[in-house]
Design a protein that fits this description.
This protein has 118 residues and is mainly beta. 0% of the residues lie in helices and 48% in strands.
Length: 118
């Protein structure tokens, strides 16, 4: 089992940048692929980005491709989401999640709010 704690959210003007962090407990962090998701008010949670266990492979939602970068530091048990050129439509609660080998995202953090005013 792994516990996840996100940080780094906040209020940022359109066009600005933020870096989210997700710190994981436990010694098995490198055994999980990791993902970032977000949920805007009144909308369903949506996929943002994912990174493989080694960090060698990443994938992004079309809406963030070219603006967001996911990375991980396995010795520090941390996954990051660097967000640039932020838009009001990026406003949401951002969650990190750990994916078990069976394929499901089983472990979730509590979320961190990102607000980009229009």
């Amino acid at each position: 089992q792994v516990q996840l704690v996100e940080s780094g959210g906040g209020l940022v003007q359109a066009g600005g940048s933020l870096r989210l962090s997700c710190a994981a407990s436990g010694r098995t962090f490198s055994s999980y692929a990791m993902g970032w998701f977000r949920q805007a008010p009144g909308k369903e949670r949506e996929f943002v980005a994912t990174i493989s266990r080694s960090g060698g492979s990443t994938n992004y939602a079309d809406s963030v491709k070219g603006r967001f970068t996911i990375s991980r530091d396995n010795p520090k048990n941390t996954v990051y989401l660097q967000m640039s050129s932020l838009k009001p439509e990026d406003t949401a609660v951002y969650y990190c999640a750990a994916r078990v080998p069976a394929g499901e995202y089983r472990y979730w953090g509590q979320g961190t709010q990102v607000t980009v005013p229009s």
